[in-house]
Amino acid sequence: MFTLILVLLSQPLFGPFEQFTFMGEPMDTGLGSAPCLVDWNGDGLTDILVGTRDPYSPLLPDVDGGIFYLPNTGTPDTPLYETVAVLEADGAPITHSS
Fold it and tell me: Between the CA atoms of 33, 60, 37 and 95, what dihedral angle is there, to the nearest 10 degrees?
């Protein structure tokens, strides 16, 4: 027998808003993007993966439907994103259709 217990919270568990920056500028991943915070490289820091349509920013490589990787080179308390790479498989960019 399994028992299901539901807990209702009176307050959401959201923290304060944090503006991520890339190369010292506020990060805007663009319309139709899908940013995901994840420890992609296993170093204990929160990296960013972004799936986007044709990039509008000169800071991002020109890959239509690309998935971009921004490693955190800062700390857990002070993330720092200064580089971007396109995720690849077998030497070709991994893309998605939007």
Answer: 60
pTM, to two decimals: 0.69
Name which residue leads in pLDDT, 72 or 93.
72
Domain count of the chain? 1
Could you tell me the pLDDT band of residue 27, with boundaries at 50, 70 and 90? confident
DSSP E strand boundaries for 27-70: 34-38, 47-51, 67-70
- The pLDDT of residue 78: 87
Q: Is residue 38 part of a domain?
A: yes
What residues are paired with 50 via a beta bridge? 35, 68
Is 12 a domain residue?
no
